[in-house]
Amino acid sequence: MSNLVQHARGLPLVTKAAAAVYFVFSSASLLLRLRVEPVISDDPIHLAGLDPARFLLLRPGFIISYPWTVVTTAFVEPNIVFMLCGLAVLVTVGGFLERQWGPRHYALFLLVVGAVPVVTAVLAVIIVCTVRADSTLLYTTQIGGLAAMVSGFAVGLKQLIPDYNVKLFRGSIGFRMNDLPGFYTLVAPIMFTLLGSLGGVLLVNIGFFEAFVYLRFYKRDGPIHGDRSDAFAFGTFFPEFVQPVVRRIANGVYWAAVKCRLVMSDEGYQQAIDLESGVPVRTNPETGEVLVGEESDKDRRRALAARALEARLENMDTASSSAAAAASGSSGSAAEAFNK
């Protein structure tokens, strides 16, 4: 017990706060439902209106009456088994991500993969109800829990440690973090479908997509937005035999987003990297556009090589100064010993 308390105290601040809110809200929803006697009714909308957890757990039909549930519902899991599993994920994976990104970036990430997928899922349910001309789903669909956050955590782990191997049950089961998002977005929707949870299916897929878009194009690291590396491209989340097709579709969507000024172009992203690293950026004096091509790449490589050479010379000077100081110190000690 003391080890558990010590571990809880050592958690990062945002992780500790998120785990505490999740535990309190989920426990409250469980206790509220246990205290209310079950009601038999053929009207699902009437039953939804009697749910005591509607003050914390979002149902699209009640979003106007309880607008704060857009934020609270991500931290509400009315199933005790899922609640305990979610708490373990928040403490372990969430703590790791916060240590890597820092509290401010991690808190913003929680907001992106927590509240934004909820709003998107509500819009999806409204569209389905409009097409079907049936409003029942607005009240029977519960949108909440950590499904979207877990998708986001899986995407974050793939970005940070894609080659890390996880071994379970004494090595009998193993997988790479690179494969975790694909595995989760395949298995979790099947599980939620069997449980009859439309909200869970929506949150898993929407959370995955929005986490990728945020980490790929928007997460700030100084003047740099996102991670445009080939290892984190959208196609790498899919099996190799479908990657060419996915890559073509993703490229088309990307260029449409660039034209609409929703995301930064590759040239602008490279310019931000060059400015951050101190590499001079060649521009057209007439148009002001960034020049890309063979000459620009040569200049970039020369500047990087010059910076590396300067750093190496500084290290050599530091090492020489340290050696000289050590030699003078040892000779002084020897002279003192001789005089004695």
Automatic annotation (TrEMBL):
Q: Which SUPFAM superfamilies match?
A: Rhomboid-like (SSF144091)
List the Gene3D superfamilies: Rhomboid-like
Q: Which InterPro entries match?
A: Rhomboid-like_sf, TMEM115/Pdh1/Rbl19
Please provide the record's keywords in A-Z order: Membrane, Transmembrane, Transmembrane helix
Q: Where in the cell is it found?
A: Membrane
Report residue spans for region: Disordered.
Answer: 315-340
Where is it mainly found?
membrane
Its BP terms in the Gene Ontology are: retrograde vesicle-mediated transport, Golgi to endoplasmic reticulum
Composition-biased stretches (Low complexity) = 319-340
Ranges annotated as spanning the membrane: 13-34, 80-97, 109-133, 139-161, 182-209
Provide the topology term for how it sits in the membrane.
Multi-pass membrane protein
The superkingdom listed in its UniProt entry is Eukaryota
One GO CC term, this protein: membrane
This protein is called DUF1751-domain-containing protein
Species whose genome carries this gene? Linderina pennispora
